[in-house]
Amino acid sequence: MGANTMAYVSTELAARVCPCAAAVAGRVYPVERPAGPVDDRFSAAVVREVGDVLGSFGFPVIEDDSADWYALSWCLWRFVYGYSGRGRHGGDPAGDSAGSDGAAGGVRW
Fold first, then answer.
1. Which of 3, 19, 39, 50 has its Cα between 20 and 30 A from that of 108?
2. Which are the contacts of 89, defined by CB distance < 8 A and separation ≥ 6?
């Protein structure tokens, strides 16, 4: 997948993943986002390892650089850091679409 395809897939997935569960009492996640643009703890290796765990339990293997891999990375990012983009589930209830704040920004691939 090229950079343009990756951006398209990421944008499409951002609009479809529902972070409603972030508001449930007693959760430890989401954690505070890093102050800088990069969090060294969240990387392609995290996504790969979670995909490997799913595969080890008999779920289909998640190939690197596939639509499933990017979907998993979005879900993990939103699980770990929450979602503060615009729109129905974001920090700005007046917006109608997912904003760039919801992106898996700061992730080093």
1. 19
2. 18, 19, 20, 83
Q: Chain-wide mean pLDDT for the chain?
A: 73
Query: 64 — alpha (psi -120 to 50), left (phi > 0) or beta?
Result: beta
> Which tops the pLDDT comparison, 6 or 79?
79
Residue 91 main-chain phi, psi, to 5 deg:
-75, -15
Return the amino acid letter for 99.
G
Look at residues 107, 85, 62, 79 and name the one whose alpha carbon lies nearest to residue 15. Answer: 85
Q: What is the pLDDT of residue 102?
A: 46
Full-prediction pTM beyond 0.85? Answer: no
19 Cβ contact list (under 8 Å, min separation 6): 78, 82, 83, 89
Task: Give, in degrees to the nearest 5, the angle at Cα 88 between 18 and 37.
Answer: 70
C-alpha 82/C-alpha 80 separation (Å) is: 6
